[in-house]
Amino acid sequence: MKNWIRLLATTVIMAPLAAMAGGKVVVYNWSEYIPEDTIERFTAETGIEVVYATYESNETMYSKLQLQKNAGYDVVVPSTYYVAKMAKEKMIQPLQKELLPNLKHLDSALLNKEYDPQNNYSIPYFWGSTGLGVNTSEMDISTIHSWKQLWEPQYKGQLLLMDDVREVFHVALVLNGHSPNTTNPDEIKQAYELLKKLMPNVLLFNSDAPREPYMAGDVNFGMIWNGEVMMAQEEDDAIQYVYPDEGAVFWVDSFAIPAGASNVKEAHAFINFMMQPEIAKSCVEYVGYATPNKTAIAMLDKELRDNPVIFPPQSVIEKGEFQSDVGEAIEIYNNYWQQLKVGQ
Amino acid sequence: MSRPDFGQVLSFRQLVITLTLGWLTLMVIAPHALVIMTSFMTPDTEHLAVWPLSLESYSKVLQPIYFDVFFHSLWLSAVATLVCLLIGYPFAYILAKQPPWLRAVLLVLMMVPFWTNSLIRTYAIKLILGKKGLINSLLVSTGIIEQPITMLYTEFAVIVGLVYVLLPFMVLPLIASFEKLSADLSEASKDLGANAAQRFIHIVLPLTAPGIIAGCLIVFLPAMGMFYVADLLGGAKNLLLGNVIKNQFLVVRDWPFGSAFSITLIVMMAAMLWLYVLANRFVQRRGGLDDENL
């Protein structure tokens, strides 16, 4: 009841302000990472027009921002390690917390992390994992439990890998018993040697909508993001997710504001809006990743809240590892990555 | 009748020339100058490209792995070009023989699909070649095969995509060649006792050679750069030179190397155009009035 009154009060106070506000905000987000009506709701509530663009890898977003001298976009959504990198390179600006009152809804367990102490530069939007995707109508899921199985010769020319250097190397590094965030050139080289043996099994790389080749029946086994499995299951229950024994790849994607953004106030309004529990809830329901918004989690259906694909049990989280910035070593990764992709 | 204002005509001409030159400078010369300059700079991940000048990027182009991509890319493009020629040549021959109105209709029909964005058409190919796609379900349901064949995300799919996107560029110059081909020549040689094969080899083929070469060039060269076809149909493996260049710019951020690679591609293109000019001269001289051996 109290909430209801507050909502009404905010609407009454905000509505005229919103109408006056006008303005626009340019959002640059991962593809398929927001419910379709969210942007309309934001414009209806604030009067701020949204220009929306998408990317499919951190690298693309980073390159574009560099090219445009960090201008042209007002909100971007880098992954963990890119937040650290971009903050260090002064590509994103410190956030004005007073413009983000909805921050109180976020779970403190996902705030103040090593990649961005005090969350000076970023606000987590979603967190999720990369694990094994299986089409159970073609394969027996009970036998699938390890990253190692990707190397089995029976999958020659059949697998899907993420089109993301860090995620693919994560698997090989972990299998070799090394840290997935290593900067040691020898360990990276060893991982490359292992991945080279995996290449004959790879049919394609996809970080755009990896669920689609699974749903089209072109791929039955490989890597996938947990949220993509959630989305796929809306149409086809046979597509399932497995957290590998060696641990899944965990990541956080966060809102940040580029240093050269021209609509800083509107950008804060957008980020704040996305933290509204009602909005965060609809985002989880649509995108299928885990939200750091604990108020929103409490509002979710029990079925969704207890779904281990979205919200893995603590033991699974502890086994996995979160990605962090590898600094200059990323160049070593990238060179090997290019060699892998040309089939060397 | 008033005399045309000479000064005005002149200024109009100047205007056109200025516009053309301005356009070329802005859209062709300046960007290429930038790319050439970048290709000689030193890579830097934060600032993309920095001084001093170096030849390092060009030596990287010569690395063995890129040689492999290079030849692989040449091979894929060559196959696509050959397939385009095999489809396009008879097509252009038949089309050129039609009465003008029918020719126009057929040409329009050929062009209509190309009014749709090529990216969308490439997505459509995915639906046709997939494991549960049109071809596989047809073959499985008619019992010709038991298990669906993997066609999508293979080199085969990339070639299909390239042929589909580039076919009109092969057909158009060929039609122009066939239209110029006079039926009298064929009839005359027939009267002189040449059989169909002789007529084709000695008359039709040499006279349409400029069309064949022009068509092959405008299919072959763009084919190597069509990274989106290889990304969508080939599973984002670096199959074509275009993919390597795109990744150098967007993923690795080694702009000098990406630029050096682009320049290498342009130089190759120029070399091939030069060959075309030579071949054209050769073809036209044979039996022509300016043939010194005549």
Automatic annotation (TrEMBL), chain B:
Record field: transmembrane: 12-34, 69-89, 101-120, 156-179, 200-230, 257-279
GO CC annotation terms, alphabetical: plasma membrane
Any Gene Ontology biological process: transmembrane transport
Pfam families: BPD_transp_1
Family matches, as NCBIfam families: PRK09497.1 (NF007044)
PANTHER family: INNER MEMBRANE ABC TRANSPORTER PERMEASE PROTEIN YDCU-RELATED, INNER MEMBRANE ABC TRANSPORTER PERMEASE PROTEIN YDCU-RELATED-RELATED
Name of the protein described by the UniProt record: Spermidine/putrescine ABC transporter permease PotB
Originating species: Neiella litorisoli
Organism ancestry: Bacteria, Pseudomonadati, Pseudomonadota, Gammaproteobacteria, Alteromonadales
